[in-house]
Automatic annotation (TrEMBL):
Annotated InterPro entries: Methyltransf_11, SAM-dependent_MTases_sf
Broad EC category: transferase
Protein's recorded name: Demethylmenaquinone methyltransferase
SUPFAM superfamilies: S-adenosyl-L-methionine-dependent methyltransferases
UniProt GO BP: methylation
EC number: 2.1.1.163
Domain annotation Methyltransferase type: ranges: 36-134
Pfam families xref list: Methyltransf_11
UniProt keyword annotations, A-Z: Methyltransferase, Transferase
GO MF, one annotated term: demethylmenaquinone methyltransferase activity
């Protein structure tokens, strides 16, 4: 059985937590920095960022109150200390200008699709010389699965059709491939992208198996109706848990998950001292 309360993103975070922690060690966060985690959700990356830089002042922002309550509990229980969270829109936050040293996003740009407005707000709250750090994947190429090239082509075409009908736009669904253009267009300096592949081979751990079961179920929910009718039953048996030819059950199963770490800098070399630390003290530790 698949836990319907666990999203593919939650399952991915659990399966690849060590890889994510290693990646974030390369993020330029110094002791005492103020860090904003935008679209923090259930607090997975907020916890990692706080754990890697215990003296940083970190604020997680999201519009989902239930997710923020979970994030607060996660940080208290796993870090043994409080972290501030704010229930607010990323497009307009009650934050002083030039307040943060680092702004971080993880897998939230599919829903935050008005990039011009979004990055204008990030530019407002980030100090001159501060860093924008984005962890994103490419919706068309999240995983390499052990499919025959012909079957992979059918799935990719169905995925493209599904994406054309979604509201986020291709820039949001495939942000990592357009990151350089989007960031340059919105005034960010020297954007750089670093790509990573996370491999998994049979036999899978329970946590890894759960991730692939949920991720492939989600994939089929996207592509199933857009696959050729005469191929549908065969492909479904390979991509849905419990199917006769389910690929994860193969003894030689292997897969690679791809993600990108994108960093850019705000113009300006001098940090502003205009915003006081007392501003973050006014942020509620729990969403109201």
């Amino acid at each position: 059985m698949i836990d319907s309360e666990i999203s593919a993103l939650d399952a991915r975070e659990a399966a690849f937590d060590e890889e994510y922690e290693t990646m974030l060690r390369g993020v330029p966060s110094e002791p005492g920095h103020r860090v904003l985690d935008v679209g923090c959700g259930r607090g997975f990356f907020t916890r990692l960022l706080s754990g890697l830089n215990p003296s940083a002042t970190i604020l997680g922002v999201d519009t989902d109150v239930n997710a923020l309550e979970n994030a607060h509990s996660v940080c208290v229980n796993q870090l043994g200390r409080d972290v501030a969270f704010l229930n607010a829109s990323a497009y307009r936050m009650p934050i002083p200008p030039e307040f943060f040293d680092l702004v971080f996003f993880a897998y939230s740009l599919e829903t935050l699709s008005n990039h011009e407005r979004l990055f204008k707000e990030m530019n407002r709250v980030l100090k001159p010389g501060g860093r924008l750090v984005i962890l994103e994947d490419d919706g068309m190429h999240r995983m390499v699965l052990p499919l025959d090239p012909r079957d992979e082509g059918i799935v990719q075409q169905a995925l493209a059709t599904a994406f054309e009908r979604r509201s986020a736009g291709i820039d949001g669904l495939c942000f990592s491939r357009y990151a350089y253009r989007i960031l340059k267009r919105n005034g960010w300096r020297n954007p750089k992208r670093y790509s990573f592949g996370f491999d998994r081979l049979s036999p899978l751990s329970r946590i890894d198996r759960r991730f692939f079961d949920i991720a492939l179920t989600e994939l089929w929910s996207l592509v199933g109706d857009h696959t050729p009718e005469h191929e549908r039953a065969r492909l479904k048996s390979m991509l849905v848990p419990g199917g006769r030819d389910y690929i994860v059950d193969r003894p030689e199963f292997s897969a690679t998950l791809f993600t990108s770490l994108i960093m850019a800098k705000k113009d300006g070399s001098n940090f502003s001292n205009a915003a006081s630390c007392s501003a973050i003290d006014r942020v509620p530790m729990k969403p109201r």
